[in-house]
From TrEMBL:
InterPro entries: P-loop_NTPase (IPR027417). Keywords: Membrane, Transmembrane, Transmembrane helix. It comes from Yaniella flava. This is TraD/TraG TraM recognition site domain-containing protein. The chain crosses the membrane at residues 219-238, 250-271. Gene3D superfamilies: P-loop containing nucleotide triphosphate hydrolases. The keyword Membrane applies. The keyword Transmembrane applies.
Length: 810
C-alpha cells in the first residue's frame, strides 16, 4: 500500500471493501468485530468512515492512521462485514471537493431504547445507497471517548432512561463521532443529512442539519466585538473629553486585539476551509473536546427554607435534564450505530462479489513446508510437509495457475534433493521425482526449477526421439505369458472404459504371447516362412511387438498372419531339435494360444479381431515413442537411482503436437507401469525415509478407464513412500469413486471455476461454510485451500499464490 497524505505524526491509510462470498457474520458477531475495529482505530489516531455514491457505485472508504493500519484495523472491519478489504492510495476528488457540506448537530434527546443488536448489519447501507443522490457522500469522523465524557454521559442518560437500562452510549466500546454530508447542492446535502439519523438503529438523538460555511461564527463575533469596542472607545473619548492616556490606550489595544483575532479567524479559520484541508489530508475533522463546564442533571426535589420574616416554607426545585455532555456536533454511541453504513453487502452498487479473505490459522502459519503464497494480510501460507505425505489435489479452470503451483512444489522438492533440510516429514535426498506434463508448456518450468537448485532432471519427450523413452510395457523379468497378461491389463486400463472387454480382451490375450515371442526371437531374421512381400512388412529395425500383434489381428494380409504363425512353429521345432526346451515351450505355448484364431477363415478372423485391431493400431502409430532405436529406460531404474524425470506427453519444443488420444493412452500406460515398478522397488520406503513424488497438471489423463491404479496409489501408496501432487480442471472429469477418493487427500485446493456445478461440488467437499459462489469469485491466482497440520484439519484459507515462474525468469 502507498501511504496517504501525512497528518502530523500520522499518515492516512485507506481501505475500501468489496462484497465477498461466504458466511455473513450474524448481528452479534458483526457488533463485536465492528466495535473492536473502529474503537481500536480511533484509539490509534484519526479515523473516518466515508460512504461515496456515484451514478454507478456505492463505495466505502475507511481512513485510519498508519499505526491503526499496521494493527490491521481495516481488515478487522472487513471481517465484520464479511467482506474483502482493498487498500487504496487516497480519497477520490469528488469527496475532497464536494461543493456543499453540512453536519448534524444536537437538538434534543429522545427516549428511544433501540439497540443495534439483532438488526440486519447491511440494512443501513441498503437504505443509504438508495437515499444518496449521485456524487454525494456521508461521513463519520471518530475519536476515542475521554473518561470524563463517559462519566458525564452516563449521568445524562441515566437521568433520562434509568440507571439499569442498557444504552449504546454507556458500553466500553462507545466512541465520539461527528456526522457530515457532502453533495452537489445545499438542498441535497440538507435533505440527505436529515435522513441519516433515521437509518441509524439505536441513535436516539434528535438533530438538525447545519451548513458548513466559509464564515467562522466565533471569529465573526470577535471581529464584531472589536468594532464595538473601538466605537465605544471613540464615543467615550468624545463624550468625556480627552480620556486619560492609559485608559485610551487600553481601549485601543483591546479593540485591535479583537479585530486581529477576528480577522485571522475569518481568513484562516473558516470551517469550510478547514474541512477541505482535513479531507485533503485524508480525514474528516475530528470531533472537538467537550465543554469544560456542563451542568449535571437533577431530579425534582423540595426543601424547607425560611423567608425574610423567619417563617418556613417548602421550596420546589424543578427537574433539570442537564446540559448535553458533548459538543453539539458530537455524539457518543457504539460504532455499530453508524458502522453498518459501510457494509458493501447492503447494495449491489458496492461492486462485483469477490471471494472471502479467509485467514491462516496459527497452526498452519507455523507449520513446516513449502510456502505457496500469502494471505491478503501478507501472512505466509505453507502446505505442511506432514500433509504432503498424504497427497495434494488442486482444482481450477484452464489458465488459473494450477501448473505454476505444481512447478513450485517441484522446485521445493528439487531443493530438498540437493540440500536436504533434515526436517521431519521432508523428502530429503532419497527422493524420486516424476512429473507428467500433459500440455507441453510447463516443461521449461520444471527443468528451470531443477537447474535453479543445481538438480539434474531427465526429460522424456514423447515426440523427441533424441530424449530417452520409458518403456511402458517393461514389467521386469517376467515369463512371456505373464508379461503379455500385464500388457493386456495395461491396455484395458489406458483405453476408455469398456473399450477392451469380452472378445477384444480374449483376442489380445491370445495374440500378445505370440507377438512377444516373434519380437523376442526376431523371427524376421530367421527362416521366414512367407513370401518376400510379407517379409518386407516385418524386416525393419523399427518393428515393435505391437506391429506383430497388429499383424496377428489381421491388420496386414492373411498371408502375413500365416507367415508369422508358420515361422513361430518352425522356430519352435528347431529349438526342440537343438535341445532348448525352455525356448520351445515358450514359443509353442504362444502358438497353441493362437489355435482358436488359426482355425477361423481369414474373413471370420478379420471380423472377430476388428475391435482390438483398431486399438493396437493406435499403439503402432506411436512408433515415434516406442521405436527400437530410441534410448530406453524404465521406471525401475528411475526409482532405484532416485532420478528426477519430466515426462512430456504434450506438445514438443519444435511445435509438434501429440494426438490427444495418443497422449492420454501413453499417460495411462506409463502410470499403470509406474505402479508396478513401485510395488517391485519401493517396499517399506516410508519407513526408510525414502519417497517418490508424482506430479501431474491434468489428473484425468492418468486416471485411465478405471479407478484401480489411482485408488491403489492413494490408499496403499504411502507405505511405499508415494506422494502425489495432482491438478485437474473439474471434478466431473473423474468418476464418482475417484472424486470421493481425491477429496480425501490431506490438501485439497481450488482456483476459480466459472461454472456453477463444479464449483458447488468442490465447495461442498471443502467445508460447510464454503459456497460455490465463493469459488467462482476467487480472484486470479488466488486459491482456497483446506489442508492438515499433523493430521488435524485446518479451516479453509484464501491464498494469493506466489508466481513461481518469476523465480526462474520465465
Amino acid at each position: 500500500m502507498t501511504p496517504g497524505h501525512s497528518l502530523g505524526m500520522n499518515q492516512a491509510a485507506f481501505y475500501t471493501f468489496q462484497r465477498a462470498t461466504g458466511v455473513r457474520p450474524n448481528p452479534q458477531e458483526f457488533a463485536t468485530r465492528a466495535n473492536a475495529a473502529i474503537n481500536g482505530a480511533a484509539s490509534s489516531g484519526p479515523t473516518s468512515l466515508i460512504m461515496h455514491r456515484t451514478a454507478g457505485a456505492y463505495t466505502t472508504y475507511f481512513a485510519v492512521s498508519d499505526s491503526a493500519a499496521k494493527s490491521k484495523k481495516g481488515l478487522e472491519l472487513a471481517q465484520a462485514y464479511g467482506a474483502r478489504a482493498k487498500e487504496v492510495d487516497e480519497l477520490p476528488e469528488d469527496v475532497i471537493n464536494a461543493p456543499h457540506i453540512v453536519k448534524l448537530v444536537f437538538r434534543s434527546a429522545e427516549h428511544g431504547i433501540d439497540t443495534q443488536y439483532g438488526a440486519d448489519p447491511a440494512e443501513m447501507a441498503r437504505g443509504l445507497s438508495q437515499a444518496m443522490p449521485d456524487d454525494s457522500w456521508v461521513g463519520f469522523s471518530v475519536r476515542r471517548v475521554k473518561r470524563f465524557e463517559a462519566k458525564r454521559n452516563r449521568k445524562y442518560v441515566d437521568h433520562r432512561m434509568g440507571a439499569n437500562l442498557r444504552h449504546l452510549s454507556k458500553t466500553k466500546a462507545a466512541v465520539v463521532f461527528s456526522v457530515y454530508v457532502g453533495a452537489q447542492s445545499r438542498s441535497e446535502a440538507i435533505s440527505l443529512a436529515r435522513d441519516v439519523p433515521e437509518m441509524m438503529t439505536g441513535f436516539d438523538v434528535a438533530t438538525r442539519a447545519v451548513s458548513v460555511t466559509h464564515i467562522n461564527k466565533r471569529a465573526a463575533g470577535y471581529f464584531g466585538t472589536g468594532v464595538a469596542a473601538g466605537a465605544l472607545t471613540m464615543v467615550a473619548n468624545a463624550t468625556f473629553g480627552n480620556l486619560p492616556e492609559p485608559l485610551l490606550r487600553i481601549g485601543w489595544i483591546i479593540t485591535g486585539a479583537l479585530l486581529l483575532v477576528g480577522a485571522l479567524g475569518l481568513i484562516f479559520g473558516a470551517p469550510k476551509r478547514k474541512m477541505y484541508s482535513h479531507l485533503r489530508r485524508g480525514f474528516l475533522p475530528e470531533p472537538k473536546r467537550s465543554p469544560s463546564v456542563v451542568r449535571s442533571p437533577r431530579k425534582e426535589r423540595t426543601k424547607w427554607v425560611r423567608d425574610s420574616d423567619g417563617d418556613q416554607r417548602e421550596k420546589v426545585y424543578k427537574e433539570f435534564s442537564g446540559d448535553y455532555p458533548l459538543r453539539k456536533d458530537a455524539f457518543l454511541f457504539e460504532p455499530t450505530v453508524f458502522a453498518p453504513a459501510g457494509n458493501p453487502h447492503g447494495s449491489t452498487l458496492a461492486g462485483a462479489i469477490t471471494a472471502s479473505d479467509r485467514e491462516v490459522t496459527p497452526e498452519l502459519a507455523q507449520a513446516n513446508g513449502p510456502i505457496i503464497g500469502k494471505t491478503v494480510h501478507g501472512a505466509p501460507v505453507p502446505i505442511p510437509a506432514s500433509s504432503l505425505r498424504f497427497s495434494t489435489m488442486i482444482f481450477g479452470e484452464p489458465g488459473s495457475g494450477k501448473s505454476v503451483t505444481l512447478q513450485g512444489l517441484w522446485s521445493w522438492l528439487c531443493k530438498e534433493r540437493v540440500n536436504p533440510s533434515g526436517l521431519r516429514h521432508y523428502p530429503g535426498a532419497d527422493s524420486t521425482l516424476i512429473a507428467f506434463e500433459t500440455k507441453g508448456g510447463g516443461v521449461e518450468g520444471y527443468l528451470s526449477h531443477s537447474a535453479l537448485h543445481n538438480d539434474k532432471a531427465i526429460l522424456v519427450d514423447a515426440l523427441d526421439y533424441r530424449t530417452p523413452a520409458i518403456d511402458p510395457f517393461d514389467y521386469g523379468d517376467l515369463p512371456m505369458r505373464e508379461q503379455s497378461e500385464r500388457m493386456v491389463s495395461a491396455l484395458q486400463y489406458a483405453f476408455e472404459d469398456g473399450a477392451i472387454m469380452g472378445r477384444s480382451a480374449e483376442s489380445l490375450r491370445a495374440v500378445y504371447p505370440a507377438a512377444l515371442a516373434a519380437e523376442h526371437y526376431q523371427i524376421a531374421y530367421e527362416d521366414w516362412m512367407g513370401d518376400e512381400e510379407t517379409h518386407r512388412m516385418f524386416a525393419s529395425e523399427h518393428i515393435t511387438v505391437h506391429d506383430y500383434a497388429h499383424g496377428l489381428l489381421m491388420g496386414k494380409t492373411p498371408e502375413a498372419f500365416d507367415a508369422i504363425m508358420a515361422t513361430l512353429s518352425t522356430l519352435a521345432d528347431r529349438y526342440k531339435r537343438d535341445g532348448d526346451l525352455e525356448a520351445y515351450d515358450e514359443i509353442i505355448e504362444a502358438v497353441d494360444d493362437m489355435s482358436p484364431l488359426m482355425q477361423m477363415t481369414p474373413s471370420a478372423r478379420r471380423s472377430f479381431t476388428e475391435a482390438p485391431r483398431n486399438k493396437i493400431d493406435v499403439l503402432r502409430r506411436m512408433n515415434y515413442y516406442m521405436r527400437p532405436d530410441r534410448p530406453t529406460t524404465n521406471f525401475e531404474t528411475v526409482l532405484r537411482k532416485h532420478h528426477a524425470v519430466v515426462i512430456n506427453v504434450g506438445s514438443s519444443g519444435d511445435d509438434r503436437v501429440i494426438d490427444d488420444e495418443q497422449s492420454k493412452l501413453l499417460s495411462g500406460l506409463l502410470v499403470y507401469n509406474l505402479r508396478s515398478a513401485i510395488q517391485r522397488v519401493c517396499m517399506n520406503w516410508e519407513d526408510q525415509g525414502r519417497s517418490v513424488s508424482v506430479l501431474c497438471d491434468e489428473f484425468s489423463m492418468l486416471a485411465g478407464s478405471n479407478d484401480d491404479v489411482m485408488m491403489w496409489m492413494r490408499d496403499q501408496g504411502r507405505a511405499y513412500g508415494l506422494r502425489m501432487h495432482f491438478a485437474t480442471q473439474f471434478p466431473a472429469q473423474l468418476s464418482h469413486n475417484m472424486r470421493e477418493n481425491v477429496f480425501g487427500y490431506h490438501t485439497v485446493a481450488t482456483y476459480t471455476m466459472g461454472s456453477n456445478t463444479p464449483s458447488e461440488v468442490v465447495a461442498k467437499e471443502l467445508s460447510d461454510d464454503v459456497t460455490g459462489e465463493e469459488i467462482r469469485n476467487l480472484a486470479k491466482y488466488h486459491l482456497l485451500m483446506v489442508t492438515n497440520v499433523e493430521d488435524e484439519i485446518q479451516p479453509p484459507v484464501t491464498v494469493e499464490v506466489h508466481n513461481f515462474n518469476e523465480d526462474v525468469m520465465l
